[in-house]
Fold:
Amino acid sequence: MTFPFFNGGKNRDQVFAVDLGSRTTKAVLLERRDNAFSLTRFTVQDAPIYDKAMPQGLLTEHLRAIMDNIQPKTRQVTLAIGAGDSVLRSTEMPLMPVDEMRQMLKFNSKTHLQQDLRDYIFDCYIVPPRAQKQLEPSKAGVAKYKVWVGGARRELLTTLESSVRAAGLTPSQITLSLLGPVNALEFSQPEAFNKDVVALVDMGFKSTAISILADGELCLSRSVDLGGDRLTTGLAEAMNITYAEAEGIKVGMPQEVEGHLQPLVAPLGRELRASIDFFEHQRERTVNKILISGGAARSEFLVQMLHAELGVACKAWFPTEGMNLALAPQQMTEIEQVSSVLAVAIGSAAMTVG
Structure:
């Protein structure tokens, strides 16, 4: 099973990607048409309910249901796994082949990642030397470079591979949901990706991914344990109403519960501010734009609250903007409502486009 967290760059006519979210699974199909890739199908389905790790049989049946909906001709699939099932860290390592880096991390992850990650499989992306300043030589006289390291437990990867094959598919790539919005921005809006200093905020059900880019380089990536579920739960408790009622109010009538929502959104604003301050101090660059995807992008009110909290221009971001769309009429009418939650799936598919 190949395991590239980063761009594999394989030429294909059809790309099928699945984002295994904690509450919903999102899947997209990209097809090559007139020398460009178009979004031709998508689906958003409830994720299976399970206690800890999703059983192989349950995942297999879920993937079959996704296939029935998407009906891909290709048997190859790219899967995105969440922050709770993976790690993404930047570190400094001597310049060497990636295979050697992976072996070094396998036997000494604590030194390089400040965490003992036994029985993990790793992949590495060396930030091109032209995009970074060579670091000062270590005491041993060896120069080091910035490297992004992704990792996941071997047991999880074995389960994913077995489930995918049992569903009649071939596992092409396993990637990280944290990388999805970054790749989606590069794919759909390359000019903004390459020229802007921007923070990407993708709010999921359990957590929110924060990525900061500068001139096409991923400079900071982190996940905070604050997502749509905590906002809804907090609102339900504050107003003494059911979870379903709180979800409806949060989306449909947020202005009427501003006093209850404000203290719930504030922690996310503080986490985002801390990330921006850290980046600006390290790079001496200013983040001038925040693009928000995921569930939060559906609420203009929440976007406005983050803007007020941070004092930086915030905008809902829809990863299908700038993409070629070749959807069936019914899906064309639905895409505007779900586009914001497809960032990870689209970004994962974009990794395979060559």
